[in-house]
User: Fold this.
Amino acid sequence: ADSIAQFELGENAQGRSLRAAARRYAEKSGDWSYLSALQLFIEEEQRHSRYLRNFMIIQRLPLAPGHWVDDTFRWLRKRAGLELFIVVLVTAEIVAQPYYRALRAATSSTLLQEICKEILRDEAQHLCFQGNALRKLRQGRPGWLLALWEKLHHLLMVGTCAVVWNSHRRVLVCGGYSLCSFVAVCRRTLRSLHALARTPLAT
Assistant:
């Protein structure tokens, strides 16, 4: 119950800071389509939160008023430009994939299994969407700078995995993950994201 409540908090965001950063980017680049698509992304994240919240209400499970992990991610995002905002977002979405797979395997609730299945389908598309946004933002940068960004993102990913494992170990273990396999799957997804972000745009 505590684990689901924490993820419900993470899915529930108004996205005001993200929209503001995306608007500044659109004003400079003329890429207003990203701002429009971003609104749909935010609405999907809020829908995930509603699914989890409604499930908890049905099961009479207590909702979390707040959590320091969620507060930390929100603090990071609000102080970031669009690129770092996206980096923080995709880090959370990468760890969410093995988490929801583990939760789906661990529960006997058909309703919760279906919720996890839908969230996983959406999160895969979200990573592709944000990966393409990073691809646009990073076009033309020298290789050494891209490598530095990727190295820093890797460190953020490993630190996030450690925090998530500490807070959600029971769910992840019930879903068949060890610490090593959990970190490995997150790193593999991160490498795929970096590969997408490095792909040159069509001219």
Residues 143-174 form the longest helix (32 residues). The chain has a mean pLDDT of 88.
